[in-house]
Amino acid sequence: MSEKISPHCAGCGISRDQRICRDPDGIGPDDCPTINGKDVVAEAMREYEDPATLRFAQESSRQEAACYVAAGDELRTVKCRIEEVCEFARRMGFRRLGIAFCSGLIYEAAILEKIFEAHGFEVVSAICKAGRVPKEKIGLKDEEKIRPGCYEAMCNPISQAKFLNAAETEMNIMIGLCVGHDALFLKYAEAYNTVLAVKDRLMGHNPLAALYTSGSYYKRLLNPE
After folding, report:
1. Is 82 within 8 Å of 196 (Cβ atoms)?
2. Closest among 63, 51, 90, 79 to 171, alpha carbons compared
3. I need a surface site. Which of 61, 72, 91, 124 has the fewest CB within 10 A?
4. CA pseudo-torsion sign 43, 49, 52, 54
5. How many helices (H) and strands (E) does the chain have?
6. For strand 96-101 and strand 74-77, is the pairing parallel, antiparallel, or unpaired?
7. Average pLDDT estimate for 79-97
């Protein structure tokens, strides 16, 4: 990879329909990866020469298209993410799904498991506390626990990943793993992984709410001092 670029696509000031990443005749800023990162893109495209990777990418795009229907002059979305997960897994021929979930969302995980089973999938699920390993085992002090003076089992995403690996799941669905724990699960899980919900204790597991209110209630996020 010969090119070293640092794109800032999130801050692109080009209007959507004029961006070169969408339109061959479009334009881009000086640090645009579409303009300056041709070597990087070429390297990435070589990965799609692997038949399994190519098929996964193809089915992903087909699933994306299947979520829209024409309604006059506009397109409307018609499927929720759970429906998408079920449809995509069927497109890929997956039969065994894994669920890695936070103990605080066991109710949601139980419903999801029933939904997947109703769609004909075999489901394996692993809770974050599986193994009941005390937090002291990874070097935490008593005062660093949520409830000092009490026994607390650590969240153990590596164990979750290994339980699902041993069950030979073909795709895993994550529900509400903590920040950091989710990253460890993704590092150690061998199957493909997708996220149904991320944890946000304050926002009812909808972290985008803080972005939508960053100009009012949560303006402190932009002014951390």
Report:
1. yes
2. 90
3. 72
4. positive
5. 8, 6
6. unpaired
7. 98
Return d(Cα 136, Cα 123) in angstroms, integer: 32
Structural domains of the chain, ranges and CATH numbers in brackets: 80-225 (3.40.50.1860)
CA-nearest of 116, 111, 124 to 88 is 116
Cα gap 219→74, rounded to integer Å: 34
At 194, give phi and psi (nearest 5°): -135, 160
Q: Residues in the chain, how many?
A: 225
Query: In terms of pTM, does the model score above 0.85?
Result: yes
Instruction: Give the single-character DSSP code of 149.
Output: T
Q: Which two tokens stand for residue 96?
A: 């065994």
For residue 145, give both structure tokens: 């626990």
Task: List, in sequence order, every residue forming a beta bridge with 123; answer none if it has no partner.
Answer: 97
Identify the band that residue 4 occupies on the pLDDT scale cut at 50, 70 and 90: confident
